What we know:
The chain has 152 residues and is α/β, with parallel strands linked by helices. The protein has helices at 15-18, 27-33, 67-77, 81-87, 102-109, 122-126, 141-144, and strands spanning 36-38, 44-46, 55-60, 89-95, 114-117. The N and C termini lie far apart (43 Å).
Amino acid sequence: xxxxxxxxxxxxxxxxxxxxxxxxxxxxxxxxxxxxxxxxxxxxxxxxxxxxxxxxxxxxxxxxxxxxxxxxxxxxxxxxxxxxxxxxxxxxxxxxxxxxxxxxxxxxxxxxxxxxxxxxxxxxxxxxxxxxxxxxxxxxxxxxxxxxxxxx
Length: 152
């Protein structure tokens, strides 16, 4: 019988986190913010530029060939752009491959929001993310497809 992977590591941001004096970030985030990510056209941008001036939800995926990651991003693709715009929030996916894989992955998943890669895994390493399937859980709620982003 195969070993089940460990549960995912997540961090909930609370109002207490916002109370941190402006300009002060944890050292790891400050270091990661200086690293470059690459968009689908090969343009490099500092990671910190993605979230310093705007609220952002940043999702790191294991890799673009991971079935669970693909399903998760397919679920994220269902979030209407106008919902994010009204909330003044950017939805950003970060992968760890070549930027040449971004456009085919977006085509495959229907993901219309921002997506970048960290091809050398610098940000992943700085933030303590582990490599391989053993670092994640079995089926996420996303893989079960129980998200519904339609207005009620």
